[in-house]
Amino acid sequence: MRRDSLTMAAALLVAAVAGGAVAVAGASIVGIGEGTTTVRELIREQQFPGQSDIADKPSTRLTLGDIYKRDAPGVVQVTSTTKVQLPRNDFFTNPFGLPGTQVQRALGSGFVIDKAGYIVTNYHVVGEAQSVQVSFSNSDTMKARIVGKDPYTDIALLKVEASSRALKPLDLGNSDAVRVGDQVAAIGNPFGYDRSITLGIVSALQRSLTAPNGSPIDHVIQTDAALNHGNSGGPLLNTKGQVIGVSSAISTGDNGTEGNVGIGFAIPINTVRDVIAELKQHGRVDHPLLGVVGHPISSNIAKVFNLPADHGLLVERVIPGSGAEKAGLRGGTNQVVVEGESYQLGGDLIVKASGIDLVSTERLREIVAERKPGDTLALEYFRGSERRTADVKLGRQPPTPQE
Q1: What amino acid positions are annotated as catalytic residues?
Q2: Residue 330 resides in a domain
Q3: What mean pLDDT, rounded, does the chain reach?
Q4: Residues facing residue 207 across a β-bridge
Q5: Which of 257, 282, 307 corresponds to the end of one domain?
Q6: pLDDT tens-digit readout, 86-109
Q7: Residues 230 and 360 grouped into a single domain
Q8: Could you tell me the residue range of the domain that residue 363 belongs to?
Q9: How many angstroms separate the CA atoms of 271 and 207, rounded?
Protein backbone atom coordinates (compact mmCIF):
# COMPACT_ATOMS: atom_id res chain seq x y z
CA MET A 1 0.00 0.00 0.00
CA ARG A 2 2.84 2.37 0.93
CA ARG A 3 4.61 1.58 -2.34
CA ASP A 4 1.46 2.42 -4.31
CA SER A 5 1.18 5.73 -2.48
CA LEU A 6 4.78 6.62 -3.25
CA THR A 7 4.29 5.71 -6.90
CA MET A 8 1.21 7.89 -7.12
CA ALA A 9 3.01 10.78 -5.40
CA ALA A 10 5.88 10.53 -7.84
CA ALA A 11 3.48 10.53 -10.76
CA LEU A 12 1.75 13.62 -9.42
CA LEU A 13 5.10 15.36 -9.02
CA VAL A 14 6.08 14.59 -12.60
CA ALA A 15 2.71 15.78 -13.81
CA ALA A 16 3.02 18.98 -11.83
CA VAL A 17 6.45 19.73 -13.24
CA ALA A 18 5.35 18.93 -16.79
CA GLY A 19 2.22 21.02 -16.41
CA GLY A 20 4.27 23.94 -15.12
CA ALA A 21 6.55 23.70 -18.13
CA VAL A 22 3.57 23.76 -20.49
CA ALA A 23 2.07 26.74 -18.70
CA VAL A 24 5.27 28.78 -18.88
CA ALA A 25 5.89 27.85 -22.51
CA GLY A 26 2.38 28.88 -23.41
CA ALA A 27 2.50 32.18 -21.56
CA SER A 28 3.06 35.48 -23.28
CA ILE A 29 6.63 36.38 -22.35
CA VAL A 30 7.37 40.09 -22.21
CA GLY A 31 10.99 40.59 -21.25
CA ILE A 32 12.43 43.69 -22.87
CA GLY A 33 9.46 45.51 -24.31
CA GLU A 34 7.21 48.08 -22.73
CA GLY A 35 6.41 45.93 -19.73
CA THR A 36 7.28 42.70 -18.01
CA THR A 37 4.99 39.89 -16.96
CA THR A 38 5.71 38.99 -13.36
CA VAL A 39 5.22 35.45 -12.12
CA ARG A 40 5.28 35.21 -8.35
CA GLU A 41 6.20 31.84 -6.93
CA LEU A 42 5.27 30.22 -3.65
CA ILE A 43 8.41 28.45 -2.42
CA ARG A 44 7.91 25.53 -0.04
CA GLU A 45 10.19 25.38 2.96
CA GLN A 46 12.22 22.43 1.74
CA GLN A 47 15.83 21.52 2.36
CA PHE A 48 18.38 20.86 -0.32
CA PRO A 49 18.58 17.12 -1.04
CA GLY A 50 21.40 15.63 1.00
CA GLN A 51 21.98 18.96 2.70
CA SER A 52 23.08 17.42 5.99
CA ASP A 53 26.02 15.82 4.21
CA ILE A 54 27.41 18.97 2.61
CA ALA A 55 26.75 21.73 5.14
CA ASP A 56 29.67 22.52 7.42
CA LYS A 57 27.58 23.20 10.52
CA PRO A 58 23.90 22.66 11.35
CA SER A 59 23.55 26.38 12.09
CA THR A 60 24.57 27.28 8.54
CA ARG A 61 22.03 25.09 6.76
CA LEU A 62 19.37 27.00 4.87
CA THR A 63 16.27 25.74 3.20
CA LEU A 64 15.66 26.66 -0.43
CA GLY A 65 12.88 28.96 0.76
CA ASP A 66 15.22 30.59 3.28
CA ILE A 67 17.75 31.29 0.55
CA TYR A 68 15.11 32.81 -1.71
CA LYS A 69 13.68 34.94 1.11
CA ARG A 70 17.11 36.20 2.15
CA ASP A 71 18.82 36.68 -1.23
CA ALA A 72 16.08 37.46 -3.77
CA PRO A 73 15.74 41.10 -2.59
CA GLY A 74 19.38 41.61 -3.57
CA VAL A 75 18.87 40.33 -7.13
CA VAL A 76 17.95 42.92 -9.75
CA GLN A 77 16.74 42.94 -13.31
CA VAL A 78 19.10 44.77 -15.67
CA THR A 79 17.85 46.38 -18.89
CA SER A 80 20.39 47.97 -21.21
CA THR A 81 19.58 50.18 -24.18
CA THR A 82 21.84 50.53 -27.21
CA LYS A 83 21.40 52.62 -30.36
CA VAL A 84 22.56 50.79 -33.48
CA GLN A 85 23.33 52.51 -36.78
CA LEU A 86 21.16 51.22 -39.61
CA PRO A 87 22.65 50.70 -43.08
CA ARG A 88 21.33 52.62 -46.06
CA ASN A 89 18.59 50.79 -47.93
CA ASP A 90 15.58 51.45 -50.14
CA PHE A 91 13.08 49.38 -48.19
CA PHE A 92 10.15 50.63 -46.18
CA THR A 93 12.17 50.64 -42.97
CA ASN A 94 14.35 53.37 -44.47
CA PRO A 95 12.54 54.57 -47.63
CA PHE A 96 14.80 57.54 -48.36
CA GLY A 97 18.03 55.57 -48.04
CA LEU A 98 19.24 57.88 -45.27
CA PRO A 99 21.31 56.69 -42.30
CA GLY A 100 19.22 55.93 -39.26
CA THR A 101 19.38 54.32 -35.84
CA GLN A 102 17.56 51.50 -34.15
CA VAL A 103 17.13 51.06 -30.42
CA GLN A 104 17.98 47.61 -29.07
CA ARG A 105 17.35 46.44 -25.54
CA ALA A 106 18.97 43.56 -23.68
CA LEU A 107 17.65 41.92 -20.54
CA GLY A 108 19.70 40.29 -17.81
CA SER A 109 20.18 40.00 -14.08
CA GLY A 110 22.56 41.34 -11.47
CA PHE A 111 23.06 41.40 -7.71
CA VAL A 112 23.95 43.96 -5.06
CA ILE A 113 27.34 43.52 -3.37
CA ASP A 114 27.38 46.38 -0.87
CA LYS A 115 25.41 49.21 0.70
CA ALA A 116 27.17 51.76 -1.50
CA GLY A 117 25.02 50.64 -4.43
CA TYR A 118 27.47 48.54 -6.44
CA ILE A 119 25.89 45.83 -8.58
CA VAL A 120 27.60 42.98 -10.44
CA THR A 121 26.34 41.74 -13.80
CA ASN A 122 27.75 40.32 -17.04
CA TYR A 123 29.64 42.39 -19.58
CA HIS A 124 27.49 40.95 -22.37
CA VAL A 125 24.35 42.24 -20.62
CA VAL A 126 25.45 45.88 -20.83
CA GLY A 127 27.93 45.73 -23.73
CA GLU A 128 28.17 49.14 -25.37
CA ALA A 129 24.87 50.34 -23.93
CA GLN A 130 24.11 54.05 -23.81
CA SER A 131 21.85 53.63 -20.80
CA VAL A 132 21.24 50.97 -18.16
CA GLN A 133 18.34 50.59 -15.76
CA VAL A 134 17.94 48.20 -12.87
CA SER A 135 14.73 47.06 -11.24
CA PHE A 136 14.53 45.80 -7.69
CA SER A 137 10.95 44.92 -8.40
CA ASN A 138 9.22 45.36 -11.70
CA SER A 139 7.59 48.55 -10.47
CA ASP A 140 10.72 50.10 -8.93
CA THR A 141 13.23 51.04 -11.63
CA MET A 142 16.22 53.37 -11.41
CA LYS A 143 19.07 54.42 -13.64
CA ALA A 144 22.43 52.74 -13.14
CA ARG A 145 25.89 54.03 -14.00
CA ILE A 146 28.42 51.70 -15.61
CA VAL A 147 31.46 51.91 -13.33
CA GLY A 148 33.53 49.58 -15.47
CA LYS A 149 33.44 46.44 -17.56
CA ASP A 150 35.83 43.67 -18.49
CA PRO A 151 35.18 41.72 -21.70
CA TYR A 152 37.97 39.26 -20.80
CA THR A 153 35.99 37.86 -17.86
CA ASP A 154 32.48 38.90 -18.99
CA ILE A 155 31.99 40.98 -15.84
CA ALA A 156 30.60 44.49 -15.48
CA LEU A 157 30.13 46.68 -12.43
CA LEU A 158 27.18 49.06 -12.06
CA LYS A 159 26.27 51.62 -9.41
CA VAL A 160 22.93 53.05 -8.36
CA GLU A 161 22.23 56.04 -6.14
CA ALA A 162 19.85 54.56 -3.60
CA SER A 163 19.29 54.61 0.12
CA SER A 164 21.39 52.01 1.92
CA ARG A 165 18.20 50.76 3.56
CA ALA A 166 16.81 49.91 0.13
CA LEU A 167 19.81 47.73 -0.73
CA LYS A 168 20.28 44.08 0.22
CA PRO A 169 23.89 43.03 -0.44
CA LEU A 170 24.52 39.33 -0.99
CA ASP A 171 27.28 37.50 0.87
CA LEU A 172 30.17 36.38 -1.33
CA GLY A 173 31.45 32.85 -0.78
CA ASN A 174 34.64 31.02 -1.74
CA SER A 175 34.53 29.38 -5.17
CA ASP A 176 37.78 27.52 -4.45
CA ALA A 177 35.86 25.47 -1.86
CA VAL A 178 33.21 24.34 -4.38
CA ARG A 179 33.16 20.62 -5.18
CA VAL A 180 31.44 18.58 -7.86
CA GLY A 181 28.11 17.37 -6.50
CA ASP A 182 27.50 20.39 -4.25
CA GLN A 183 23.93 21.64 -4.32
CA VAL A 184 23.48 25.12 -5.76
CA ALA A 185 20.64 27.53 -6.52
CA ALA A 186 20.38 30.23 -9.18
CA ILE A 187 18.24 33.35 -8.85
CA GLY A 188 17.57 35.55 -11.86
CA ASN A 189 15.03 36.89 -14.33
CA PRO A 190 14.74 34.25 -17.09
CA PHE A 191 12.77 35.63 -20.06
CA GLY A 192 11.79 38.56 -17.83
CA TYR A 193 10.10 36.43 -15.17
CA ASP A 194 10.89 38.33 -11.99
CA ARG A 195 13.27 36.70 -9.48
CA SER A 196 12.92 33.04 -10.28
CA ILE A 197 14.93 30.44 -8.36
CA THR A 198 16.14 27.10 -9.71
CA LEU A 199 17.91 24.24 -7.99
CA GLY A 200 20.74 22.02 -9.20
CA ILE A 201 24.21 20.72 -8.50
CA VAL A 202 27.74 21.55 -9.52
CA SER A 203 28.18 19.26 -12.52
CA ALA A 204 31.86 19.97 -13.20
CA LEU A 205 34.69 22.36 -12.40
CA GLN A 206 37.62 23.84 -14.30
CA ARG A 207 35.65 24.38 -17.49
CA SER A 208 36.84 26.93 -20.03
CA LEU A 209 34.38 29.43 -21.45
CA THR A 210 34.81 31.83 -24.36
CA ALA A 211 34.37 35.47 -23.32
CA PRO A 212 32.44 37.96 -25.50
CA ASN A 213 35.71 39.18 -27.04
CA GLY A 214 36.88 35.67 -27.84
CA SER A 215 39.37 35.18 -25.02
CA PRO A 216 39.17 32.08 -22.77
CA ILE A 217 37.84 32.26 -19.20
CA ASP A 218 39.31 29.50 -17.02
CA HIS A 219 38.06 27.72 -13.86
CA VAL A 220 34.40 28.13 -14.86
CA ILE A 221 31.74 26.29 -12.82
CA GLN A 222 29.33 24.01 -14.71
CA THR A 223 25.87 23.44 -13.24
CA ASP A 224 22.61 21.76 -14.20
CA ALA A 225 20.55 24.43 -12.40
CA ALA A 226 18.18 25.77 -15.05
CA LEU A 227 19.60 28.93 -16.62
CA ASN A 228 17.90 30.71 -19.51
CA HIS A 229 18.07 34.03 -21.34
CA GLY A 230 17.69 36.72 -18.68
CA ASN A 231 19.59 34.75 -16.01
CA SER A 232 22.89 36.23 -17.21
CA GLY A 233 24.56 38.20 -14.45
CA GLY A 234 22.54 36.63 -11.64
CA PRO A 235 24.06 34.84 -8.65
CA LEU A 236 24.80 31.13 -8.32
CA LEU A 237 24.46 30.35 -4.62
CA ASN A 238 25.66 27.61 -2.27
CA THR A 239 23.62 26.06 0.55
CA LYS A 240 24.59 28.91 2.88
CA GLY A 241 23.10 31.44 0.49
CA GLN A 242 26.54 32.77 -0.49
CA VAL A 243 27.39 33.73 -4.05
CA ILE A 244 29.91 31.29 -5.54
CA GLY A 245 29.54 32.35 -9.17
CA VAL A 246 27.94 34.69 -11.69
CA SER A 247 25.61 32.90 -14.12
CA SER A 248 26.91 33.69 -17.57
CA ALA A 249 26.16 31.16 -20.32
CA ILE A 250 24.38 27.99 -21.33
CA SER A 251 25.12 25.26 -23.81
CA THR A 252 22.22 24.71 -26.19
CA GLY A 253 23.53 21.45 -27.64
CA ASP A 254 23.14 20.51 -31.30
CA ASN A 255 19.35 20.68 -31.52
CA GLY A 256 19.25 24.41 -32.25
CA THR A 257 17.09 25.24 -29.23
CA GLU A 258 17.85 28.37 -27.25
CA GLY A 259 16.44 26.96 -24.02
CA ASN A 260 18.13 25.24 -21.12
CA VAL A 261 19.40 21.70 -21.66
CA GLY A 262 20.96 21.24 -18.23
CA ILE A 263 24.40 22.67 -19.00
CA GLY A 264 25.02 26.14 -17.62
CA PHE A 265 28.18 28.01 -16.70
CA ALA A 266 29.09 30.52 -14.00
CA ILE A 267 32.17 32.71 -13.58
CA PRO A 268 33.71 31.79 -10.17
CA ILE A 269 33.26 34.47 -7.54
CA ASN A 270 36.95 34.48 -6.61
CA THR A 271 37.71 35.62 -10.15
CA VAL A 272 34.92 38.19 -9.91
CA ARG A 273 36.30 39.61 -6.63
CA ASP A 274 39.59 40.53 -8.28
CA VAL A 275 37.85 42.00 -11.32
CA ILE A 276 35.42 44.22 -9.40
CA ALA A 277 38.26 45.52 -7.21
CA GLU A 278 40.03 46.71 -10.37
CA LEU A 279 36.83 48.08 -11.88
CA LYS A 280 36.08 50.08 -8.74
CA GLN A 281 39.54 51.61 -8.76
CA HIS A 282 40.28 52.06 -12.46
CA GLY A 283 37.08 51.36 -14.40
CA ARG A 284 38.90 48.66 -16.36
CA VAL A 285 41.11 45.63 -15.83
CA ASP A 286 44.61 45.54 -17.29
CA HIS A 287 45.36 41.97 -18.27
CA PRO A 288 49.00 41.02 -18.89
CA LEU A 289 50.08 39.78 -22.31
CA LEU A 290 52.91 37.31 -22.90
CA GLY A 291 52.50 37.22 -26.66
CA VAL A 292 52.71 33.59 -27.69
CA VAL A 293 50.19 31.13 -29.07
CA GLY A 294 51.19 27.65 -27.96
CA HIS A 295 50.11 24.03 -28.33
CA PRO A 296 50.68 21.53 -25.49
CA ILE A 297 52.48 18.28 -26.28
CA SER A 298 52.27 14.81 -24.76
CA SER A 299 55.13 12.35 -24.25
CA ASN A 300 53.83 10.40 -27.23
CA ILE A 301 53.93 13.47 -29.49
CA ALA A 302 57.42 14.27 -28.19
CA LYS A 303 58.57 10.83 -29.36
CA VAL A 304 56.89 11.16 -32.74
CA PHE A 305 58.53 14.56 -33.40
CA ASN A 306 61.78 13.68 -31.60
CA LEU A 307 61.45 16.69 -29.31
CA PRO A 308 63.99 17.38 -26.51
CA ALA A 309 61.35 17.25 -23.70
CA ASP A 310 58.27 15.16 -23.02
CA HIS A 311 56.16 18.14 -21.93
CA GLY A 312 55.75 21.83 -22.72
CA LEU A 313 54.14 24.18 -25.21
CA LEU A 314 55.12 24.37 -28.84
CA VAL A 315 55.23 28.03 -29.84
CA GLU A 316 53.08 28.22 -32.95
CA ARG A 317 52.95 32.00 -33.29
CA VAL A 318 54.53 35.03 -31.65
CA ILE A 319 52.44 38.21 -31.55
CA PRO A 320 54.21 41.14 -33.24
CA GLY A 321 55.35 43.84 -30.86
CA SER A 322 54.82 41.68 -27.77
CA GLY A 323 57.31 41.00 -25.00
CA ALA A 324 57.78 37.48 -26.34
CA GLU A 325 58.87 38.84 -29.72
CA LYS A 326 61.21 41.35 -28.11
CA ALA A 327 62.72 38.52 -26.04
CA GLY A 328 63.48 36.64 -29.26
CA LEU A 329 61.02 33.75 -29.10
CA ARG A 330 60.16 32.10 -32.41
CA GLY A 331 57.01 30.51 -33.74
CA GLY A 332 56.64 27.42 -35.89
CA THR A 333 56.97 27.31 -39.66
CA ASN A 334 55.98 23.77 -40.62
CA GLN A 335 52.44 22.47 -40.07
CA VAL A 336 51.91 18.73 -39.60
CA VAL A 337 48.86 16.68 -38.65
CA VAL A 338 48.97 13.69 -36.30
CA GLU A 339 45.81 11.69 -35.57
CA GLY A 340 43.65 14.55 -36.79
CA GLU A 341 45.39 17.20 -34.66
CA SER A 342 47.47 19.98 -36.15
CA TYR A 343 50.91 20.98 -34.84
CA GLN A 344 53.16 23.83 -35.94
CA LEU A 345 56.78 22.65 -35.83
CA GLY A 346 60.02 24.55 -36.14
CA GLY A 347 59.38 26.97 -33.27
CA ASP A 348 60.55 27.06 -29.66
CA LEU A 349 59.33 24.60 -27.03
CA ILE A 350 58.59 26.35 -23.71
CA VAL A 351 58.98 23.90 -20.81
CA LYS A 352 58.90 26.18 -17.75
CA ALA A 353 57.50 29.54 -16.71
CA SER A 354 58.69 31.08 -13.46
CA GLY A 355 60.25 27.70 -12.63
CA ILE A 356 56.95 25.82 -13.05
CA ASP A 357 56.66 22.94 -15.52
CA LEU A 358 54.16 23.63 -18.29
CA VAL A 359 51.77 20.86 -19.30
CA SER A 360 48.87 22.95 -20.62
CA THR A 361 48.05 26.35 -22.06
CA GLU A 362 45.71 26.88 -19.09
CA ARG A 363 48.64 26.57 -16.69
CA LEU A 364 50.61 29.19 -18.59
CA ARG A 365 47.59 31.53 -18.60
CA GLU A 366 47.30 31.12 -14.83
CA ILE A 367 50.95 32.00 -14.31
CA VAL A 368 50.68 35.05 -16.55
CA ALA A 369 47.38 36.15 -14.97
CA GLU A 370 49.01 36.29 -11.53
CA ARG A 371 51.19 39.15 -12.78
CA LYS A 372 50.63 42.67 -14.03
CA PRO A 373 51.58 44.42 -17.27
CA GLY A 374 55.22 45.46 -16.98
CA ASP A 375 56.23 42.49 -14.82
CA THR A 376 58.94 40.12 -16.01
CA LEU A 377 58.33 36.41 -16.52
CA ALA A 378 61.23 33.95 -16.65
CA LEU A 379 60.86 31.28 -19.35
CA GLU A 380 62.85 28.14 -20.04
CA TYR A 381 62.62 26.77 -23.55
CA PHE A 382 64.32 24.64 -26.17
CA ARG A 383 65.38 25.86 -29.58
CA GLY A 384 66.14 22.63 -31.35
CA SER A 385 68.11 20.66 -28.76
CA GLU A 386 69.59 23.75 -27.08
CA ARG A 387 68.09 24.75 -23.73
CA ARG A 388 67.68 28.51 -23.32
CA THR A 389 66.20 31.06 -20.91
CA ALA A 390 64.50 34.39 -21.48
CA ASP A 391 63.09 37.14 -19.26
CA VAL A 392 59.96 38.39 -20.98
CA LYS A 393 58.45 41.76 -20.06
CA LEU A 394 54.68 41.34 -20.06
CA GLY A 395 52.63 43.75 -22.11
CA ARG A 396 48.98 44.77 -21.85
CA GLN A 397 46.13 42.88 -23.49
CA PRO A 398 44.38 44.96 -26.17
CA PRO A 399 40.58 45.46 -26.05
CA THR A 400 40.23 42.64 -28.58
CA PRO A 401 42.48 39.60 -28.14
CA GLN A 402 45.01 38.87 -30.83
CA GLU A 403 45.09 35.16 -30.08
Answers
A1: 124, 154, 232
A2: yes
A3: 80
A4: 220
A5: 282
A6: 665 554 455 555 566 677 888 899
A7: no
A8: 288-396
A9: 14
